[in-house]
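Quick one, T. Sequence first:
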Amino acid sequence: MEHVLGGQLLHRSNKGVTPTELGTLVFRHAQAITEAYDKMLFEAKELESSGQVLTILATPSIHSYALPCTLYQIKKKYPTYSLQLQAVSSDAIEDMLLKGRGDIGFIAGRPKSKELIERQVFSDFAYLVAGEGLSVPPKISRAELCRYPLLMLTEAQKTQQLLHRYFVENGIALERLQVLYQLDSIESIKVSAVQGYGLAFLPYMAIKKELYHKQLRIVELDCGRLEFDYYSVKRAASSADERVRAEITRYIESSISETIC
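Structure tokens:
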């Protein structure tokens, strides 16, 4: 560079090196060039993502109780992206992703499709709960469970399918259960349980508030708690735009367990 500029950039001696007047000038302009380059890269990235929409599909329980606080943190980190959150059943989420109608999904249990990339992001226990108005002891056996009215989700819900598996694994005969009625949302079952209409198996993230306010109480079952594993599912990123989206989805996956409301 000294040859190109036709002057000495550094004073060299046994004590070390110090910049000459020309060297100081070159250093100052080099800093300005570096800062301008970094600013250009930042603005290019902002321009690339400006006005983009990230579509997030989630089961109703994750949609209502896990993601709202997570989305707030995402919006702070990626302000130029618009976030669209949709509540969809687990099976429908897989179908929509395969058809390119979403960027990332959150489902209960592992996905059926082998074409999607999966990652377990968090787990949550489901508890047997009762409203304060329902007369039931604090602990019951599997046999005693059949004596009480039970509020259940519809068979199409993935969490209901996992609950059925739990019953079978623990020797609970499905045909002996007194199912009062089946509803299509956890929120509607929770409202019915609070009113004392029956027992219900509900995820902890959905009942924290009601337990705190003593609207619901946990009834211990002798076969232990039911644990739900929740997974993120997505397609592989193939374009530059999708790689930016992939960066955001990785952030969601890594932070959701810490930001559940």
